[in-house]
Amino acid sequence: MKDAPPAALPANLVDPPWLRKPAAPRAAAGGTVVPGLEPPGGRRVVWAPGERAEWAAARPYGGPWADGDWEREAEEVRDGSMYLPSQAGFLASAPEHIARPLLATWEPRKVTWDFAHSLKPIVARFEDAAWDVSVRMAKANPHGTGPVLLPFLGADVARLMADWLYRLKSARHLARTWFARHGLEAVPYLVPDALGKRVGPRRNALHALRTIEGDVVEAARVHGDEAAHAVAALLADEPEQAEPAQAAEAAGPSPLAARSARPSPSPAPRTTRPSRRTPTGGSPS
């Protein structure tokens, strides 16, 4: 039996979808893309005056631990049997030769309460050594743990804050505070996403750039003149978009919500017809 010619076969057999190269991510409509940009490397912990001392002085949970207890208690941190806020208190208080290796492998479970208070003395003590665990827990609990990221300046935190600013109502105030705090120093971390192809990060980064005061275009020039000109064009030409929650509030209630809120008409009064039954033992009148 001869093989069928390609023209006689279905297109998906001639060119199987699973063998095709994936299409490049679509850029935002009308946007300029500058490929190959990378955010600055490294991580910085930028303290406000007196802030580090204030965080270090936060009273940790748990303890006090006696000198002979450190090694035994460290094992409870390793196996997770110690109460989680006490684990944080232990890391903030234990001798450095015990606490630092523990911190490097510490993987606390996700929490829904205010855990920033427990992490602050750890961040004040170990700074960027506490970065990964702080970011991981903040992602899982932006409102309760996110404030611990305020001194952090790096690509991952800038992208996270841009996402929260645009998308997450519960963390929007925190994100605004972060961008107001770091200002133009945050711009180089945002520009690669703002001029990239991925729609979500691009939208978030551009929205964040619009909130930063000062000469954003000049701050973007660290990525070159082409990037600076592209940022200037985006900021000038693309209209400001409301944050999703704000847009929903401005639009007012949906027709369904309005219909649900409308009072239901009262039922018509029932008319009782006089009975035509003859009372027992009587006769009709």
Radius of gyration: 31 Å
Class from secondary-structure proportions: mainly alpha
Q: Ends: how far apart?
A: 103 Å
| Approximate shape | globular
Give the spatial strand order of the biggest sheet.
1-2
Low-confidence stretches: 22-29, 248-285
Number of helices: 16
How much helical structure, as a percent, in the residues?
40-55%
State the major sheet: 2 strands, antiparallel
State mean pLDDT (0 to 100 scale): 82
Tell me how many strands there are.
2
Secondary-structure element order, N to C: HEHHHHHHHEHHHHHHHH
Q: What is the percentage of strand-forming residues? A: under 5%
Describe this structure in words.
- The structure is a single chain.
- The protein is 50% helix and 1% strand.
- The protein has 285 residues and is mostly helical.
- Among the domains are: 47-150, no CATH class; 153-247, no CATH class.
- It is globular.
- The model is unreliable at 22-29 and 248-285 (pLDDT under 50).
Features:
mainly alpha; globular; 1% strand; 16 helices
Short description:
The protein has 285 residues and is mostly helical. It is 50% helix and 1% strand. The protein is globular.
Would you spell out the secondary-structure blueprint of this structure?
Layout: H1 11-14, E1 44-45, H2 51-56, H3 70-79, H4 84-93, H5 96-105, H6 116-126, H7 131-140, H8 142-145, E2 152-153, H9 155-167, H10 172-182, H11 187-194, H12 199-211, H13 216-220, H14 225-237, H15 244-251, H16 255-261
Antiparallel strand pairs: 1-2
